[in-house]
Amino acid sequence: MNQVISSENSEQLAADTALVREYLDRAVRPAVLDAQTQESYKRKITQLMRQKKARLVAHYYTDSVLQDLAEETGGFVGDSLEMARFGRDCDAEILIVAGVKFMGESAKILSPEKTVIMPTLEATCSLDIACPIDKFSAFCDQHPDRTVVVYANTSAAVKARADWVVTSSIALDVVEHLMEQGKKVLWAPDKHLGSYIQKTTGADMLLWDAACIVHEEFKARGLADMRKLYPDAAILAHPESPSAVLEVADVIGSTTQIINAAKQSTKKEIIVATDQGIFHKLQQMAPGKKFIIAPTAGNDATCRSCANCPWMGMNSLESLYSSLQDNSNRVEVDSQLAAAAMIPLQRMLDFAANNQLKVRGKA
Ligand code: SF4
């Protein structure tokens, strides 16, 4: 059984779309800095970080200059699960999270004793926006027989309502584990990832209806044309992409799994269906290979992201420097809410620590 909900209510869907668009309108990309100005910011930030015992964790989708700065200053670049773990285990007094809001919240929940700041608190995620706690909670109440599994790309309140939190690197394994226990799953919010998990595992899943605006833009038809141009290329895709794209992918995985697959692949040309920010790490980890972005709708009226998350793009050296100077843009999570959200988060971390996660693909 695989069922998608919410779209039965077209008014609701239109309201959700309008809300995402409203946030998108506010997601202004920072100005591009020249090399000298960048270096000057990097020096000032590094000095401040040393003084304040701060560490920077950055997501693979953020600007390459932030990824480099994180690594040069003893911080970390990774996917959301790895970022949360690094943040929890490092000895920083201040944790700077370059990413989007739910990542800052997860870092604060896992490290309540640390000051967590972000270059901007405006950076969010279409999945988080389209899964408000009141509606989600009502939906859970209608299906009390189901185990509630939510993606990490959700608010602290939605996490607190869940039995499990998962990232894309662990979602399949967790749902397989639940299926073995005879559990039925209520999944939120990404319908493409949920549908991929349902098809792969055969689990009984009820799906929330939301999508990532970046991955939803990848087009299967364009990908088929591209494959003709690069017949020997491997296709690596993130499971937030639509099912028609996943069907032609050689490897389907989280950002870290995509990087590992690119390193291990014998192919010299690799087509990648995820945010272009990951190309910086791909090029570092697999030099000598050619990486090609999978086709989106293109720069026409229908493309809202063109493989660049507008919210990840809001993180900049300037905004980081400004928030670190006065410890502004602090992430705060109500302590009761944090305690409730910690339960499913900890369940995921324990599961990840005790299980060897699998990578799926045809090659
Ligand atoms: S890339 Fe997609 S899933 Fe990731 S933060 Fe942006 S909108 Fe959300």
Short description:
The protein has about 375 residues and is an alpha/beta fold. Helices cover about 45% and strands about 15% of the residues. The chain has 3 domains: about 1-10 and about 125-210 and about 345-355, Rossmann fold (3-Layer(aba) Sandwich); about 25-125 and about 310-340, NadA-like (Rossmann fold), CATH 3.40.50; about 215-295, NadA-like (Rossmann fold, 3-Layer(aba) Sandwich).
Description:
- This protein has 363 residues and is of the alpha/beta class.
- It folds into three domains: 2-8 and 127-211 and 343-357, 3-Layer(aba) Sandwich (Rossmann fold), CATH 3.40.50.10800; 26-126 and 311-339, NadA-like (Rossmann fold), CATH 3.40.50; 215-293, NadA-like (Rossmann fold, 3-Layer(aba) Sandwich).
- Helix content is 45%, strand content 14%.
- It is built from 16 helices and 14 strands.
- The chain has helices spanning 10-26, 35-52, 64-72, 80-89, 101-110, 126-129, 133-142, 156-160, 171-180, 191-201, 220-229, 243-247, 255-264, 279-285, 317-325, 335-354; strands spanning 2-4, 54-59, 76-78, 94-98, 115-117, 147-151, 164-166, 185-188, 205-207, 234-237, 251-252, 269-273, 290-293, 360-361.
- It has a five-stranded parallel sheet with strand order 1-9-8-6-7.
- Helix 2 packs parallel to helix 15 and helix 4 (80-89) runs parallel beside helix 5 (101-110).
- The chain binds iron/sulfur cluster.
- Iron/sulfur cluster (SF4) binds next to helix 6.
